[in-house]
Amino acid sequence: MSDRVSVFSLRLRTVSVLSGLMPASAALALTVCGLPSAFAGGFEIPANGTEALGRGGAFTAKADSPLALEYNVAGLAQQRGTHALIDNNLVFSRYRFAREGGDSFGPYPSVQADGSRPFYAPWFGMTTDFGFFERFTFAFGIYGPSSIGQRTFPMFVSDESGKLRPGPTRYDVATTDLLIFFPTLAIGFRAHKMLDLGFSVQQASAQIKLASATYAPQSLPVFPESAACTKQAEVAGCDSVTRFSGTSYDNYLLSLGALMHLGRSVDVGVNVRSASNLGIRPMTIRGTVAATEPLYLQGAGIGAEQMDGEFTVWLPWVFRAGVRYGQKLGGMQLFDIELNAVYEAWSWLDGTDHYLTLKNPPPLVNRGEPLTITLPHRYKDTIGLRLGGSLYMPMTADAGVTMRMGGFYDSSASADQDLRLDFDTLAKLGITAGLGISMRGVELNAAYSYQHSLSRTVTSGELRIIDGTTGQPVRINDQVAPAINNGTYSGSTHVLSLGLTLRFDEWRTSKALSSQSL
How many degrees, rounded to 5, is the angle at CA 504 between CA 503 and CA 510? Predict the structure, then answer.
């Protein structure tokens, strides 16, 4: 929708012919509406990290690897020596939409986000006590949210007869290409043999590209074909393709964690990750907007090659809690089972409003002065459950195999009327499995996850095409054009993960012992 912003600004230029200043602003606002959902619950999917993925994302009360940076920073305190971890997720995702109704070509065809290539998501972390500190462990990591950063819905699709026709999803979103990553510094502290504490600070960086189509309901005598733009909605010749590209690097998040060891068998963990910038200010993404001229209005001056703009979005407060039961033999973990709950508190952000600001709009928009538009968004608080565990089978004194299994559930972040296509915010169920092989301080892990998005049929959608000359929904023959997000949504995701963990002190000790035996 941020794309619509440019389109609207374009329309604002058309306003130079039609005197429609306010519309452009409204249109711009719509363009931005698509981006916020990038951060809604449902943007992230379980789970980052190969070991955690194999356990269904249940890792908050275990947190005994560098993955503690994400799941529970207090878990760092139980890691002695120096550890390094690199995990790699490959995400194969499908998101489908069968829109209700049809156009002059017939019923709308079902469309699917282009999943021709997997989305690659690496995770790196390192922990150390520097061989000196007995109660402190320090850590560094860099990773992104467990998410699908790229989706493409076609602007034009082929129906069953092979005829090329306008895509039914083009007014919502055509392309999302997101890169979000969190450079992280953390410290864990063993306050007591029964209590570990942790703290981290993260810099949140974002590089974002979006594209969509927007509508120009203008009829100008000098462009005879444009008459169709005011007689019916969704005429492809009245569309403008808009693109937003922006970056943001001046944001931070904080995390606090606690891990309680209740005897030899039970661990309880809690972790809180703050909203972006502690909820004091949102993430501000600065960039440019460009838009093409509608085919039926070529030469009207509606297109814009570049406008400076910025819009703001939030990352929510995230609360994790977990309880874990396990059995050890000779200090070695034989098996464990863990239950986690994850809560995303969107309601703490006062309605999750977002704002779009045009820094240098055309002269006819707000007299050329910067213009800020409020973009309300209605995300719901989300609840997720993760259940998983592992079974360790020793092979030799310093080698063994670990089998993992898990499952998870996430509630939907969107009500029916707000459901859209930029991100899959449907409720989700998933199952996972994993395998680890460890020997002399080196551990190789593999995991697989299948996630099913529970399909929903929307009949009360409220997403509509906006008239850029009025800032209101497009009206044809004095009737509001139908909503564009009614229909059936469904999706599925497969995740393959491979990871490597090095425990340097253990590896060096094993190597030294091997040398002595020789």
Answer: 95
pTM for the predicted model, two decimal places: 0.85
Phi, psi of 157 (to 5 degrees): -130, 160
Q: Please give the Cα distance from 75 to 322 (Å, whole number).
A: 12
Q: How far apart are CA 480 and CA 173, in angstroms?
A: 21
Phi, psi (5° rounding) for residue 509? Answer: -65, -45
Q: Is 184 helix (H, G, I), strand (E, B) or coil?
A: strand
Give bridge partners of residue 311 from the DSSP assignment.
Answer: 285, 356
User: If 0-12 CB within 10 Å is exposed, 13-18 middle and 19+ buried, where does residue 416 land?
Assistant: middle
Sequential pLDDT tens for the chain (518 residues): 333 333 333 333 333 333 333 333 333 333 333 333 333 344 577 789 999 999 999 999 999 999 999 999 999 999 999 999 999 999 998 899 999 998 888 899 888 886 557 888 899 999 999 999 999 999 999 999 887 878 888 888 887 777 888 999 888 877 888 888 999 999 999 999 999 999 999 999 988 888 888 787 777 788 888 888 888 888 888 888 888 889 999 999 999 999 999 988 999 999 999 999 998 888 889 998 877 888 888 877 766 778 888 877 888 999 999 999 999 877 778 999 999 999 999 888 766 656 667 677 665 445 667 766 655 467 889 999 999 999 999 998 889 999 999 999 999 988 898 888 877 889 999 999 999 999 989 999 999 999 999 999 999 998 888 665 554 577 787 888 889 999 999 999 999 999 999 998 876 665 554 444 44
Task: Look at residues 65, 12, 50 and name the one whose alpha carbon lies nearest to residue 304.
Answer: 12
What is the SS3 assignment for 299? coil
Burial zone of 345 (CB within 10 Å; 0-12 exposed, 13-18 middle, 19+ buried): middle
CA–CA gap between residue 150 and residue 121 (Å, rounded): 11
Q: Per DSSP, what are the bridge partners of residue 236?
A: none
How many other C-beta atoms can be found within 10 angstroms of the C-beta atom of residue 386?
A: 27
Distance (Å) of CA 75 to CA 244, 270, 363, 388, 445: 40, 10, 56, 18, 20
Provide the 8-state DSSP code for 13. H
Rounded Cα distance between 445 and 302, Å, is: 54
Letter for the amino acid at 314? W
| Run of H or E including 28 | helix 21-33
d(CA 372, CA 134): 53
